[in-house]
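lol ok so funny story. i was supposed to be doing the assay writeup but got distracted and ended up predicting the structure for this chain instead. priorities right. anyway since i did it might as well share w the group, maybe its usefull for someone
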Amino acid sequence: MTRILHFSDVHFPLSRNSVSLPEILRPKRILASANYLLRRRPKFIAGNTKWDAFNNFYKSIEVDAVICTGDLSGMGMHGELDYAQSKLEHISKHPNFILLPGNHDLYLPEKNGSHFYDIFKDSITKSDITISDNTPYPLVKLINDNVAIVAVNSAKPNPSLIRSSGNISTEQLSAVDALLNNDELKTRHVIVATHYNADDEDTNLHGLENRKEFRAILAKHNCAMLVHGHIHKNQTYNVPDSNTKAFCAGSLTYKGRESFWVYNIGEKNSAQAGSWDGAQYVLGEEQSI
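and the output, tada:
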């Protein structure tokens, strides 16, 4: 059996050390700071304590791969991402650690490029199959002879004050199409991972802009599973117009909704939802995939 741990949307709390004036004094971040103080802070304030508990959970089980589908930070500032990197130091050492950015990690177009790609380069340049040299994604991990994971970047900077949508580039879509037709993947159970959801239960301002094109590729290759974050609620659904089953990890640290997934791939495929009992993270009963 192959066991995979999937978590998302940690949103490590802001601290004085993670904030710099040149970065935060931009219109969207000023608005986001007010929103954080008034609404988001109480929901994520215990994030560090919960992350430490999650690390303890991770050390208590054996997994063949770890997937993080993004949103480690709140506003994508350098200090936030540096802090997130330090917190992920242990778990990111797993040989099959797969990391994707979320829209909060690529919050705004930065003059010097994305700090996310710079500091996490060791985690996003280890693809077992490379289709393009222009982007680290899609990233492929051949976990064993039975399972493969394809990580697709759907996040992008959104300078608009009201937009937090995602988009998968045309180049990436073509690469995913080619990968899912690769002989190495045809014989394996393929899990496609990205940040954004692929259903229609979202607005164009908040969801994946080209989800229909993405879904068409999943359907074309009869992809088994899609896993993602972005929506702060643990859930499963059938991807429209396809036979693909989707699993949203929700948010690991959102107060009252803390969640993640463990996938068990073997003769009988199953998934277990993880939750927070007030003191530690625990796994629920297995449900068939």
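The chain has a mean pLDDT of 95. The radius of gyration is 18 Å.
back to the writeup now i swear
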